[in-house]
Amino acid sequence: MLVSFLPQWREFLTLPESEGSGPGKRKLSVFCRYLLALCCREVPKSELRRSALVFSPHPDDESLGCGGTIIKKRQAGATVKLVHMTDGAASHRHLMPPRELATRRKAEALSAARTLDVDQIYFLDFADGALG
What is the three-class DSSP state of 80? Predict the structure, then answer.
């Protein structure tokens, strides 16, 4: 458990048994900010200018996972290419047929790529869930 590596936080993180709000929630929020400060750093401009090839398991994972970094890299002049591994057709079968969903997700990925200003986008179109 992560807390065992940070003994000074163990007592601080004892959350009340009740609802997920109040002092316990604030403690958890402070702890999460502490962890982020430990592991996050400003990326140097020289690193932002390096090209990137982003592999995304499903269309939209690149935007959710590293959209901010993609934007920063493009603003710094880096070449960024996206590779979507699967068609994303299995994610929301309860909402629409898989083929329709795959078509919609591809269109949304193209729109997101334009918004993120990526240089190239590739679709490998493996069946969603088949790469396990």
Answer: strand
pLDDT tens digits in sequence order for the chain, 132 residues long:
344 445 555 555 555 544 555 655 677 778 777 777 777 777 788 999 999 999 999 998 899 889 999 999 999 999 999 999 999 888 877 888 989 999 999 999 999 999 999 999 999 999 988 887
CA separation, residue 16 to residues 9, 31, 55 (Å): 15, 15, 41
* Contact by Cβ (8 Å): 116, 71: yes
Q: Are residues 30 and 67 in the same domain?
A: no
Range of the domain at 15: 2-39
State the pTM of this model. Answer: 0.67
SS3 of residue 9 by DSSP: helix
Residue 53 in any domain: the answer is yes
Dihedral, 78, 82, 83, 86 alpha carbons, nearest 10: 160
Are 90 and 105 within one domain? yes
CA Rg value for the chain: 20
